[in-house]
Amino acid sequence: MQLSPEMVHSKASEEAVAWFDVxxxxxxxxxxxxxxxxxxxxxxxxxxxxVKCNVGVSWGGxxxxxxxxxxxxxxxxxxxxxxxxxxxxxxxxxxAELTGFCWVAESLASLHYSNIIIESNCALVREALLDKAKFxxxxxxxx
Length: 143
What we know:
The chain is of the alpha+beta class and 143 residues long. The protein has helices at residues 5-27, 93-110, 123-130; strands at residues 51-60, 65-73, 79-88, 116-120. It has a 4-stranded mixed sheet with strand order 3-2-1-4, with helices on both faces. The radius of gyration is 16 Å and the shape is globular. This is RNase H type-1 domain-containing protein. It comes from Brassica cretica. GO terms for molecular function: nucleic acid binding; RNA-DNA hybrid ribonuclease activity.
């Protein structure tokens, strides 16, 4: 099946809105299933001359499945590109986040993006990259 560019744009926009709704609600305490999400957290544009890449990663423990997605927007909030991918055999949330971030980095490099801000709610990756004393087995990331 081949979709028109308008249909692809429409579906991508719908999926982006749904993704942000789910991920922003997950971050807010008390926003359980069926409750309205308080939209106090909002997207902010990147500085002039750069773009912003929002990243999301989810992990299904018993199934050992991981899903990752990213969306790139310019200063006006216009979607420039997006992608999603699934991974199998992922043993932990940390592994899921690291796998997702490696895929995002590879994607951005192959698309020749530079001067990009990466924003995510993946707390474990942030901690692993910033606190090397807690994660000594990631020391090879410096090389």
